[in-house]
Design a protein that fits this description.
The chain has about 375 residues and is mostly helical. The protein is about 75% helix and about 5% strand.
């Protein structure tokens, strides 16, 4: 078996290809370094003091992983350079080749084979580099999810506080606006932002006027629609889309009010399909049924002109939904109790109406809507 040394660009491990591989790996290193650096810097600047320890640990872990990656790249470069400088063995076909890894070339006189360079080590290095990249990405994602959970926890604690002040209500809205700017693809943050705008709107109406309230309500509608766009399988996203559609109806033309009514029902029915144990969804469907049952003749006429099948419902359907909500969570909402009383009143069931309106007046007032329902309940009782 004869062996000769060749310096041939055709048979050599291509320097062009080698530079591509080295450039790719260096690019990966630089990109990961920049990403990790930006992430660490941003977290250190924006995180609260109680998260500092966790961020330092994360920074140390990422630093160690970058060192390991640089080591892999250096070894890869050395391996590629060694392969490029290694002479290629030409083997004449005079014996068994079954144990050799070879590539065949044509010749006028005889068949020749040359031994292919071994690349297991290179593949191993690439695999390790990919593993390091995946581990780094997972840690960044995990850290983001932890931050989102922390924000949601704080928001829910403030929202459920019955003694919440106006400043705390505004703080919730600001927190969620900042959070959606930072994590724009989280539907759980967007529907909560819609709720925050809704809670803040009556406060700002008193402070800055009706136009400010209108502005906040439409921002809330946009936030709820964004939540549905991001995750149309999220019941709360559909629920708050319905609520905000209902809240902005008074600012729309008669035609748009009718169109929004269809959208309102579509979203609340979807919310119930996704979560049939939420009493608020049944209450909202009951409100739609009641309002449709009370439409004036000229609005019904307008609806007929707009839609082939105008909305239709009855007080009985409204009452059925209010009672479903009450069965799921008795006494969960002053407004639901009032509307049960109102439905019985419309059916001339005055004794039942008085029973439920008395219950409503005995309940605590927690929101501006509760105050409104309490006032209406007082007026209803006076008429019984």
């Amino acid at each position: 078996m004869a062996t000769v040394n060749l310096v041939s660009p055709e048979l050599n491990f291509s320097s062009f290809g080698r530079h591509i591989v080295i450039g790719t790996t260096l690019g990966l290193s630089i990109a990961m370094g920049i990403t990790a650096g930006m992430y660490i810097t941003k977290k250190m600047l924006q995180s609260r003091s109680d998260e500092d320890g966790r961020i330092v640990v994360c920074m140390l872990e990422l630093t160690q992983e970058m060192r390991e990656l640089r080591s892999v790249i250096i070894r890869l470069e050395s391996s590629l350079e060694a392969q490029a400088a290694k002479p290629i063995n030409i083997v004449k076909s005079s014996g068994s080749l079954k144990d050799s890894k070879s590539v065949r070339t044509s010749s006028d006189d005889e068949d020749e084979f040359y031994e292919a360079p071994q690349d297991e080590e290179i593949l191993t290095m690439f695999s390790k580099a990919e593993q390091l990249e995946s581990q780094t990405s997972q840690k960044v994602e995990s850290s983001s999810q932890d931050a989102i959970k922390s924000i949601i926890k704080e928001v829910e604690e403030l929202h459920q506080d019955k003694s919440r002040t106006d400043k705390q209500t505004e703080r919730i809205q600001i927190m969620l606006k900042d959070a959606t700017d930072k994590y724009p693809c989280e539907a759980e943050l967007w529907w909560r932002l819609a709720r925050a705008y809704s809670d803040l709107s009556p406060i700002k109406a008193k402070q800055e006027g009706e136009e400010k309230k209108k502005d906040l309500l439409y921002k809330g509608l946009a936030a709820a629609q964004k939540a549905v766009e991001l995750n149309d399988k999220l019941s709360n996203a559909h629920k708050w889309c319905s609520i905000m559609l209902g809240s902005t109806t008074e600012y729309e033309s008669t035609q748009d009010q009718i169109l929004q009514g269809f959208k309102y029902k579509e979203h609340i029915v979807k919310a119930i399909e996704l979560n049939h144990k939420d009493p608020t969804c049944y209450h909202l469907l009951g409100r739609w049924c009641y309002e449709v049952s009370q439409l004036s003749w000229w609005k019904r006429k307008a609806a007929t002109a707009i839609a082939a099948e105008p909305p239709a419902s009855t007080v009985e359907e409204a009452l059925d939904n209010f009672l479903k909500a009450e069965a799921l969570q008795p006494g969960f909402w002053l407004s639901n109790t009032y509307w049960i009383a109102m439905c019985y009143y419309q059916q001339s069931a005055y004794s039942k109406s008085k029973e439920w309106v008395t219950k409503a007046l005995a309940m605590d007032i927690s929101t501006s809507e509760d105050r409104e329902s309490h006032q209406k309940a007082t007026e209803l009782l006076a008429s019984l």
